[in-house]
Amino acid sequence: MSRITPFASPLLLGFDAMEKTLERISKASDGYPPYNIERIAADHGQPERLRITLAVAGFGEDELDVTTEENQLLIRGRQVEQDEREYLYRGIAARQFQRTFVLADGMQVLGAGLKNGLLSVDLIRPEPARMVKKINISVSQ
Q: How confident is the model at residue 29 (pLDDT cuts 50, 70, 90)?
């Protein structure tokens, strides 16, 4: 049985990498840490932004890592076990995580901030310059 994909049309050329990315995203279903993605309207000449907010209670700034690699935003959290603590009950685990977001071409990370256990990462997509290119047609004799 062959699989039908959204990119099966012969009119869509060069989307192999996008198809693989969609497959990888559909397999990554871990819900930790929970997150929100919000759209922030344009104001005062600033273009529209996106903000990803992750609930990272218990993580300090030095235990979080936000990086971009090719077209991916990677957010990692690593808590170090503290041996000097003696827990009578432990309901909050020191859990490592990695959350990956695939970014469209042109997306840029403006910055990240940590406040009240929430890590916010702001993104922007500058308006691309509209480009029309004339293709010369060669005639062979």
A: low
Start-to-end Cα distance in the chain: 47
CA torsion sign for 122, 62, 72, 99 is negative
Other Cβ atoms within 10 Å of 77 Cβ, number:
21
Please state, in angstroms and rounded to a whole number, the distance separating the CA atoms of residues 139 and 141.
Answer: 7
Dist. CA 131–CA 122, nearest whole Å: 27
CB atoms within 10 A of CB 130: 5
Q: Containing H/E element for 81?
A: none
Report the alpha-carbon angle 39-42-44, nearest 5. 150
Q: Is 136 helix (H, G, I), strand (E, B) or coil?
A: coil
pLDDT tier, 126 (very low <50, low <70, confident <90, very high otherwise): confident
Query: Which residues are within 8 A (CB) of 46 and not within 5 positions of it... i.e. 6 or more apart?
Result: none
Sequential DSSP letters for 129-140? PP----------
For residue 130, CA distances in Å to 58, 94, 126, 127, 133 come to 45, 48, 12, 9, 10
